[in-house]
User: Fold this.
Amino acid sequence: MRFINPKIEFAFKRIFGSSESKPILISFLNAMIYDGNPTIADLEIIDPYLPSKVSYLKDSYLDVKARLAGGATVIIEMQVLNIESFAKRVVYNTAKTYSTQLIRGEGYFKLKPVIALTITDFEMFDNDREVISHFVFKEKKRLFDYVDPEIELIFIELPKFNKQLDELETLTDKWVYFMKNAPSLEVVPQTMETVSEIQQAFAIANETNLNPEELADLEARERYILDQQGILRKGIEEGLAQGREEGREEGREEGREEGLALGMREKALEIARQLLNVLDNQTISQTTGLSVEDIENLREE
Assistant:
């Protein structure tokens, strides 16, 4: 057997956001948010994902969205590329989801909590080695909660997870292992067969369940992600090298910093030019760190 990569948006939505994914998503969220405890008993997947011909770009920034039985909303995103200001984007999308619950004239008492669960295929917090980080509002010195947690940010950093199959103990371990390693497996591991929801996830992820058009779309998306990762790596490396050289020529720290910034910008512009016929202005801006105005100017050249 071969399994599709759950880190790709198409596959992630198919596994966790389709109409038959409800028990899978409940198990996954209990593992990621509540340490494997069966806290979530029921939920509603909002706008369930229906497989169809899709473009190379995300339909939105939120891969899956669900409403829990108590009214709280969970927004789940799988992010592969470490783009400019991604951490700010997570906060913005979470705050926007929270603030748009009310229509004009409704009281604030109707607001329900929002939980943003973000899985990244890159490291976000260099100063910490834990796989899962859970942020809430707390008093800065005495660390007590701000009323009830209204907004929570949870991050799962897949590169920090290094457990092997024989080391998987908890439900959380098994789900993180699935997210990171499913494409490299040929059978469902015995240690994971005891969790029926993970078995269901593997069944949905089985490539034999995809038609030729869906397989072609998935492969194109994977190539696109790999290309973007390569472009970003090359751009950063060349930009840093060019910046250092220009800084050395100036012979002063100020010149070095300006040269570095100039080199990075020139490389970002070069990358953006390569993407003009592939991506929209907003996505190019997020990928390169350039402003939307910069991208618009490039299109007019």
Residues 52-61 have pLDDT under 50 and may be disordered. The longest helix spans residues 212-250.
